[in-house]
């Protein structure tokens, strides 16, 4: 999907990786859930995606046309294949593309039978470095003039690694393409969405973790403790994502 993700790199590592101008200081987050604030990277207008900013937004996209958020289904993920077709995303994919900061995300695999317990997996880079999920954002205004900055994660079909446990995965943007994805002025939506493809099969590893991640209130390193050895992708050196 994903429905949970984590940000555990230091603020210094993340600032260097995403090259935003602010110097925020924030604690690690091991179990980020929908409706919570998430760090988002945007680009200044007319900077061709180069002058980037760090900001916090609510994880749960609200299109500008929504009148009553309580009557509108929470959008935490958007399918990359249909962004330009859906009224909810058509404007944002043209003018409000962003990057969602992450170090990993979680998925669940349910065994056969309705009563079977689900197994929890952390999906991360083999070198445990950060990654940028493709995202969209929108500033929603309420009738009284208040504003909420909201965002969602764009998803693609899975690569072969993720397909073992789920039928979708976040669209992970190659750092070399950050400027292209974030350039809302010069890059048309049709060109930008060409970047929305499954990550290479060997770019991520699956780490089975315990059931502590299921509880939103659990937000510490213990929820990422492996219960079995990581399933590492073959064929690439550590640290080489793309």
Throw out a few tags for this protein.
five-stranded antiparallel sheet, hypothetical protein yedk fold, disordered C terminus, mainly beta, 242 residues, five-stranded mixed β-barrel
Structure, explained:
The protein has 242 residues and is mainly beta. It has a single domain, classed as SOS response associated peptidase-like (hypothetical protein yedk fold, Alpha-Beta Complex). The protein is 11% helix and 31% strand. It contains 5 helices and 13 strands. The chain has helices at 11-18, 90-95, 160-163, 178-182, 189-192; strands at 4-7, 29-32, 37-43, 52-59, 77-79, 97-102, 104-110, 118-124, 131-141, 147-156, 169-170, 172-173, 205-209. The strands form 2 sheets. The protein has a 5-stranded antiparallel beta sheet, with no helix packed on it. Strands 3-4-10-9-6 form a 5-stranded mixed beta barrel. The chain is globular, with a radius of gyration of 18 Å. The model is unreliable at 235-242 (pLDDT under 50).
